[in-house]
Design brief:
Elements lengths: L3 E4 L6 H9 L15 E5 L13 H6 L3 E5 L6 H14 L4 E6 L2 H8 L5 E7 L10 H5 L11 E3 L4 E4 L1 H8 L5 H10 L3 E2 L17 E6 L7 H11 L2 E5 L5 H4 L1 H11 L2
Parallel strand pairs: 1-10, 2-3, 2-4, 4-5, 5-9, 9-10
Antiparallel strand pairs: 6-7, 7-8
């Protein structure tokens, strides 16, 4: 049965709330307490590896080796291949973490034996044979998707207004501008590519749910919990909990490493 926790605190209070509620701290956990020794972090669309910059040092403090994979967002296959290379670089067992589109990637890449567990951070966990477009079709529309721009090569980027109003609205203005400038556009063809493996069927699953998400609809995130039989936490934040609540996300990853 899934275990659900909820956070509705300010960003400043997030660290205290996390430690009190989860009963563990990223800064005090040691590698000896953990089964998995390594973590691969997979960013989503309209992002890059820097999305994990606040989580990575907390995981390293806990004694975990970390790679924030820089996936190309050119196709699901290429993203999975890049993730698999990162997994192979690390000593196993490995915790595989995906944000948003990264959930599609870890669902496919996480089936290998070296992967210990999966963590979905405001991420998609589709069923076998489903593309992202098919997966979200029966759910309420996410407002942020109204702010996509497609270039001549068929890649979507999120407009500056979309980043500010829907993707990361609870971050400081300077950080929002940096995300908009550094975002990784995603090939629109990727959204029609189905997953062929369901790693979540055979791995322990964990999830961080964003309750103000305007990109990966909160209803989708909540519906997945029972399917995944996941230990989960809810945070009252936008689509980027790894930036607004890094301690919560790090602690869930550490829990997944046990």
């Amino acid at each position: 049965m899934e275990k659900v926790m909820t956070f509705r605190h300010s960003f400043i209070a997030a660290s205290i709330a996390t430690i009190a509620t989860l009963g563990l701290s990223a800064t005090t956990a040691t590698a000896e307490d953990l089964t998995a020794k390594s973590v691969v972090l997979v960013h989503g669309a309209f992002a890059d590896g820097s999305a994990w910059n606040r989580v990575t040092p907390l995981l390293e403090e806990a004694g975990l080796d970390v790679i924030a994979a820089q996936i190309p967002l050119s196709s699901l296959e290429a993203d999975v291949e890049t993730t698999n290379r990162a997994i192979q670089r690390l000593d196993g067992p490995v915790v595989l973490v995906g944000h948003s589109w990264g959930g599609m990637v870890i669902t496919e890449a996480g089936a290998q034996d070296k992967v210990h567990s999966l963590v979905y951070v405001a991420a998609f966990a589709p069923d076998e044979g489903q593309s992202l477009g098919e997966y979200i079709a029966d759910y309420p529309h996410a407002d942020g998707l109204d702010h996509l721009e497609k270039d001549a090569a068929g890649y979507y980027r999120l407009t500056d207004q979309g980043v500010a109003d829907h993707f990361a609205f609870d971050l400081p203005e300077a950080e929002i501008a940096a995300i908009a400038a550094s975002q990784g556009p995603i090939n629109s063809a990727s959204l029609g590519t189905p997953v062929t493996q369901l790693a979540w069927q055979s791995k322990p699953n964990f999830a961080v749910v964003s309750t103000q998400d305007r990109m990966t609809h909160t209803v989708i995130q909540r519906d997945q919990i029972a399917k995944l039989d996941a230990t989960s936490v809810e945070v009252d934040t936008s689509h980027v909990p790894m930036l607004t609540y890094p301690e919560v996300v790090a602690n869930m990853i550490i829990e997944a490493a046990k």
